Amino acid sequence: MFRYNVRGENIEVTPAIREYAEKKVGKLERYFTDVPDATAHVNLKVYAEKSAKVEVTIPLPYIVLRAEETSPDLYASIDLVVDKLERQIRKFKTKINRKTLGTAQEAPAPVAADEEEVNELDIVRTKRLSLKPMDSEEAVLQMNMLGHNFFIFEDAETNGTSIVYRRKDGKYGLIETN
Question: Which residues pair with 3 in a beta bridge?
Answer without folding.
Answer: 39
